[in-house]
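Predict structure. Chain length: 55.
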Amino acid sequence: MKSARKENIDGTEYYIVLRDVTMDSHPAYTGEKRLVDTAGRVEKFTTKFKRSTKK
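Prediction complete.
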């Protein structure tokens, strides 16, 4: 994203984009519940990074 506002941080110029978090949009305020499938994530991780026993 680009904006009219810019700020120089450690010698690099960054665009500043202001975003408001309101009670209408934030899940903590809207009561929206998010299901996190931790078992599926663990299985996915172990299959992705499983070491092979081949020599």
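Summary: DSSP finds two helices and two strands in the chain.
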